[in-house]
Amino acid sequence: AMVVGQFTIGGMTCAACVNSVEGILRRLNGVKRVVVALATSLGEVEYDPNVISKDDIVAAIEDAGFEGSFVQ
Ligand code: 9UX
Question: Quick check: CB of 17 below 6 Å from ligand 1?
Fold first, then answer.
């Protein structure tokens, strides 16, 4: 079953960063939906925990040069 997680993203300073983070996460297997807000540095991701873990999602964010941390 899909779950929804919220995360904070550090290092985003413009709208292109938002598109970059969203694009990277949308490409991951197991990720269904991603929204990222620049103003709050918050993101929400709907994913299948049987396919991808929070650690995998954070690793993808950090590989792209940002900091990621799950709130829940
Ligand atoms: Mo914007 Mo983000 O010019 O890494 S794309 S700062």
Answer: yes
